[in-house]
Amino acid sequence: MSYPVKTAFPLTVMACALAAPACASVEPVSLGVVEVTAQKIRQNILEVPATVDVVGAEELALRKVDSLEGLGKLVNGLNVSSYTGGQPRIYLRGIGDAFDLKNKRVAVYVDGVPQLDSVLQDPMLLNNVERVEVLKGPQGTLYGRNAASGVINIITRRPEGSGVSGFAGVGSRSERRLGLDAHSSFYDDALRLGLSTTWLKGKGELTNIANGSRGDIDKYDRRNVSLKADFIPSSRTRVEMGFNHFDDKSAPYLQTFIDSATLRPIHRQRAGMGFEPSKFYEIDRDLQGYTRTRGSGATVKISHDFGPFRLNATTGYQKDKLYTVSDADYSSNPLVRWDFDPYINDHRQLSQEIQLVGKTDALYWQSGVFLYRDRTDNSNVFKTSFGNILSHSRYRTSGWAVYGQADYKLTPEWTLTGGGRFQHDKQQLRDVQKGLAEQSRSDGSGSYKVALAYEFRPDNTSFISYGTGYTPGGVNTNPQMVGGLPVGPYLGYSPEKTASLEWGLKGRLKDLGLGYSLSVYQTMLRDQQILDMSDTQIKNLGKTRYRGIELSAQYRFAPSWSVNAGYSRNDSRVDKSDLAAAVGKRVPFVPRDTGRLGLEYNGRLAQADLTLRADVNHVGRIEADSLNSFGQAGYQTVGLSARAEFKGWWLGVNVDNLFGKEYYSNVIANSPFAGTHTALYGQRRSVHLSVGGAF
């Protein structure tokens, strides 16, 4: 396996970090133990035979990360973009879900509950996130469906003690934000209650040249509130309950046309069929449009220690509704009209997991049962120049699974991990509008994992693992496009399966103040589900190979200074496809490589604890079609963060995209007009000021 010169970027950083002690006298720095629940049990991160990236609350606050897209700047190999505020497209190690909102490849969990639909509010907007764990590679054994490439595990903070904290902020383009967190305990800490709420509002970044408005088409108003109650009657029993509600107003679809040769933005002529140049951050819409998403959820987790084992039971219920009005022809040309007015996605889900966990000196085991049901009603009024087309479909999924996994210490240094899962999934689709008979598909899928880990010195581990995952088959939730109109049947597709071999090395060198992680992997994806742009139907297009290397390092080279670096290289190739010309090409929508480099200072200034940080993020070339005929070149952005902690209050400043780099977050070959493609603009330069305190 060979990689180009760009790999030298993080390797140089690591080499400098290792060599630094020879050049300067640095006091030893204690690197704290990081505990995670990525494998559904509490473990030291070094005991997990997989690559896990963890982002804690302090780093999320310092970098002002309030979206999954922002999380991608902190995690190697994670790339997130969005067509609307409520529909993130997540890629991890090159595998993701560009178009399918139901059968995802990267599972997202919040407090142990799977987010089965993509129209939920971005969970990173919550102001009480304790940490985010990104578990990489297929995780079918513990997480089942939708974990073909990995898992994003979001853990929110439970109420503890008594206190009130809050924050307020302003930013570019009239951004305003408020947050409040209150918690208290009663009856000798046996009952704990918590309240958390967030509000974020602002103008957008885009100019609509059809009506001259600036920042209106992509403005946003996002609100949520969560209530928590923990009941702890004894040291052996714990009951955790939570309720949340959110209301999001955000943008409609925001693609713009781009010239296929120059990749510069263009727009349709007001009269005629030609195109004219646009400026960056301009779009053309005769229908302004908007998206509104509202929803609620409840979670109950009961845990009891029986001595030989602990019982954990997690129940989750969620409902949400997305309502979108959007210009789908991406122009104000009166000769062509394709509008979603409206498109509605009404979703609800119920899940139940029961888990047994036991631990002895040599064995750490778990087994469980998982059940779920969810229902989505999709309805659409598709307004065209030739009249309105109505569609209404009901999509139901359900399933059950049994699983088990165990870590067995062969010797104090060697640990063997093995596990398996069987899951049955059923997917049903009914065209309510046409009154057609229900279509259904059922599949049973087995997943397994085996790993061997060796602690070659204290706090330093090497591992090798082989694991599998899958994405269930199903039925397309939208009718087949025929002649540019959604009038065809709903086609079915088969499950896709992943298998990955990975070798990794990770640890802490406390005497040097260095933490590091290195992994090399190969993943095979069979029967890959990809959207066929000719008729907008998901189909199984063949087999794809992914090979990659990831490394990261955190090095404190002086008492107040540290450097954080990461790099990910993904070499994807289509090995088999229905489209012969695509064989040997790279998978579209996936960066060839990503990198990050951060320099941080922690010290005292007058009466404040001061943190200053500068970050450079690199995103490599992204192919935009299956033939790799065009794509976006790599780009770099720079961000600055500062936070001053005083007694009882704090002040923060953030600058994103410091040098105003113009780039696209997504480029797609889905335009019906020759010589053009479509794209989504990346983030503009923005400045944010926040202040908060605790009482």
Automatic annotation (TrEMBL):
Domain TonB-dependent receptor plug: 46-151
Chief localization: membrane
Cited InterPro entries: Beta-barrel_TonB (IPR000531), Beta-barrel_TonB_sf (IPR036942), Plug_dom (IPR012910), TonB-dep_rcpt-like (IPR039426)
One family name in Pfam for this protein: Plug
Occurrences of domain TonB-dependent receptor-like beta-barrel (ranges): 252-658
Gene Ontology CC annotations of this record: cell outer membrane
Highest taxon of source: Bacteria
Localization of this protein: Cell outer membrane
Gene Ontology biological-process annotations: iron ion transport
Family: Belongs to the TonB-dependent receptor family.
Protein's UniProt name: Ligand-gated channel
Species of the source: Paludibacterium paludis
Taxonomic classification: Bacteria, Pseudomonadati, Pseudomonadota, Betaproteobacteria, Neisseriales
